[in-house]
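Task 17 of the worksheet. Students: predict the tertiary structure of the chain below and write it out as structure tokens. Keep your answer in the requested format; marks are given for formatting as well as content.
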Amino acid sequence: MQLITEIVHPELTSKQGRVFRRHAARGIVMRHEQILLLFTERYNDFSFPGGGLDGDEDIVTGLKRELEEETGAREIQVLQHYGYIEEYRPYWKPQYDLMHMTSHFYQCEVAP
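Model answer:
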């Protein structure tokens, strides 16, 4: 597995402390010269479809579930792991000092 990058939020002063750990899976879906991205009004940005894994959910199972939920995709084929991003940012729940999220990116194909 290849690390794409590590992101540390500018307001975070340390990666130490009480850490909320999260794992996510995201799909890279391309058709010809187009790439599938989702717009999130809350953050006013675009991102690859996908999201957090549930409990001990298998990463590929979670990716397929998220792609279907977010885009309505069907006949999802997970082709290969592209890489992962390690992200550290402040967390909104007071019992934690920060969140550490690992997001795995997979090349996928979906039915037209």
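Marker's comment: Helices lie at 59-71. The chain has one helix and eight strands.
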